[in-house]
# Entry
Amino acid sequence: MVSVTIVGLGYVGLPLACLCAEKGLKVYGFDVDKNKVDSVNRQTSPIDDEYIVGKLKSLRNRIHATADPNECIPNSDVVIVCVPTPVDRNNSPDLTAVMNSASTISKFIKPGTLLIIESTIYPGTIEEIVLPILKKQKFDAYRNDVLVAHCPERIDPGNKQFKVNNLPRVVGGITKEAAEKAAEFYRSIIDASVTEVSNLKTAEATKIIENTFRDVNIAFVNEMAQSFDKAGIDIMEVIQVASTKPFAFMPHYPGAGVGGHCIAQDPYYMIERGKQLGFNHEFLKLARKINNYMPHYTVELLENELKKIKKALKGAKVGVLGLAYKANVDDTRESPAFEVINVLKTKGAEVFVFDPHVKNGGNVKDLDELLNKSDYIILVTDHREFKEMGLEKLKKHKILVVIDGRNCLDKERIKSMGILYHGIGRS
Ligand code: SAJ
# Structure
């Protein structure tokens, strides 16, 4: 039986561990966070993801989680690194978790093991950072002492259609053997295509281009939305009808900002790599600048509406709907909601926050309390609870202005109740 250690029991590692266990592999889960280890060994998920919660319950104790590398790494034919690769406060890549994992693994891994990195990294990371760490322990990956490959993760939290078992994958290796072994491994556990690429850098670049593609396209519609606000054009209708073109148009949507640990961060990995190689990614930087401005733009929209009723933000009571970075998840990492709240407070507003998906995610107990205490609201996260809320609540609670940061509410209905409405590129 093939044995595998999944390093990092988060939103990427846990679904992969569950899949390997379902496929009958011997599965260890390694994490430095003891709470995560204990949670998994109790068959409870350390993250609020219904897919993982269900799988851990049904798999019972088929995943052995541990914080002791000696218990898992030496007993594994395959070791897969699924640790976070965030950016620091200066938006520089933070590879600490990858480096620490590689250092730990290198001290316990047995010769011939297949070592796969799934974390998002910039092209060149494995050859320039991971291999030297292995070399310190006398492992030469170019001689296949350890087979080193990269298979970028493609988990989309909350996506009900594409899960770890049916997501096509891309695999690159330090050597052809490593790439083949890694491709063979993934083909044995997933029901989707596994594409081998010519080298590691190509695999590392694949994930980066996937996510920078998304960031620049979101920035594009965010810029168009600001322009359309001046022109009095509803961008959502334009995007909807542009999407009737059966080729060469791919809809993205303007909003209160871009959050999450992928789209909001991965472009900085390529920007940094470009800088190291003497290339200035002007376009990627501009896209980041536009997307990072959207929380400010969202608050400006409220200020503009308040001017119409001769009110000011200073002393205003504003309700913020949503803290999570995207709909129907509990993850608040890099959420634009924090910047919206920060700007509102800086401008003297009293802010009430509610998010039904985020534990302790706010300062009111429910949506009614938020509406009761607020005169104006800004929707930042298009959770189903907000999209389905009875709009008569707004009238009942005498809400005067609605800023729809995800263009997800019924603007005509809201306006028909005599409430001022503005979306992002939609009025
Ligand atoms: N957003 C927009 N406009 C859009 C799409 C997203 O403003 O048109 C915002 C969201 O509100 C959110 C942020 O961007 O704040 C990121 O949203 P996302 O839908 O891209 O969600 P993520 O961050 O979970 O991205 C993941 C990524 N998956 C991986 O990195 C493996 C990404 O590659 C996927 O494209 C994305 O899911 C997806 O397609 O849902």
